[in-house]
From TrEMBL:
<keyword id="KW-0812">Transmembrane</keyword>
<keyword id="KW-0614">Plasmid</keyword>
<feature type="transmembrane region" description="Helical">
    <location>
        <begin position="21"/>
        <end position="49"/>
    </location>
</feature>
<keyword id="KW-1133">Transmembrane helix</keyword>
<dbReference type="InterPro" id="IPR002901">
    <property type="entry name" value="MGlyc_endo_b_GlcNAc-like_dom"/>
</dbReference>
<protein>
    <submittedName>
        <fullName>Glucosamidase/peptidase M23 family protein</fullName>
    </submittedName>
</protein>
<comment type="similarity">
    <text>Belongs to the glycosyl hydrolase 73 family.</text>
</comment>
<dbReference type="GO" id="GO:0004040">
    <property type="term" value="F:amidase activity"/>
</dbReference>
<keyword id="KW-0472">Membrane</keyword>
<feature type="domain" description="Mannosyl-glycoprotein endo-beta-N-acetylglucosamidase-like">
    <location>
        <begin position="92"/>
        <end position="170"/>
    </location>
</feature>
<dbReference type="Pfam" id="PF01832">
    <property type="entry name" value="Glucosaminidase"/>
</dbReference>
Length: 181
């Protein structure tokens, strides 16, 4: 008999809770506002997700897909802004190289900062070589500054024609030379 009474009490409490929730949602302005906000946020998220551009490259910004061969073109995203020691141009090149070569922009910027003292090293200023890339016979770019103080390390850095080429070649070399064939 007690189980039956407990069951009846539980059913009554559930019905009463449902009734109160229904009255709060549809009978008060707070409930209606909650429902409207939920509906609008849901619609906004659906519409925003539908407007995302998933293309790999954007020819209007000079971007091109990575084919396994070096090319200087990088997609440039003007909405990317630099912070701290990273100028807008450097941040945009890092993101462009990251998109083209499927790398992390944080890793590119970390190596930029480490190898070139955030663009202030001798090879960064003279050769636009921000990544400590060494020149070798047959490479695409000419010899630059001698490696090490007074050339004590031996060898030379590559000399890039512009910053975009340096970032593109860095992405290419990390991607191409790290793939085991």
């Amino acid at each position: 008999m007690e189980n039956q009474n407990e069951s009846l009490i539980k059913q009554y409490v559930k019905r009463r809770a449902k009734r109160r929730l229904f009255l709060w949602l549809f009978g008060t302005s707070a409930g209606l506002i909650t429902i409207l906000i939920t509906v609008f946020v849901t619609l906004f998220l659906i519409l925003a997700a539908g407007s995302i551009d998933n293309s790999d490259s954007d020819s209007s910004t000079g971007g091109e897909a990575f084919t396994g061969e070096y090319s200087e073109g990088l997609p440039i995203y003007k909405e990317i802004k630099g912070r701290g020691p990273f100028s807008d141009e450097i941040a945009q090149y890092a993101v462009g190289a990251a998109v083209k070569y499927k790398l992390l922009p944080s890793v590119i910027l970390s190596q930029y900062g480490y190898e070139s003292a955030f663009g202030t090293s001798l090879s960064a200023k003279n050769d636009l070589n921000f990544f400590g890339i060494t020149w070798f016979d047959g490479c695409l770019f000419p010899k630059g500054t001698a490696r090490g103080v007074g050339g004590i390390e031996g060898g030379w850095y590559m000399k890039f024609p512009n910053s975009k080429a340096a970032f593109s070649y860095y992405g290419y070399s990390v991607t191409r030379f790290s793939i085991s064939e």
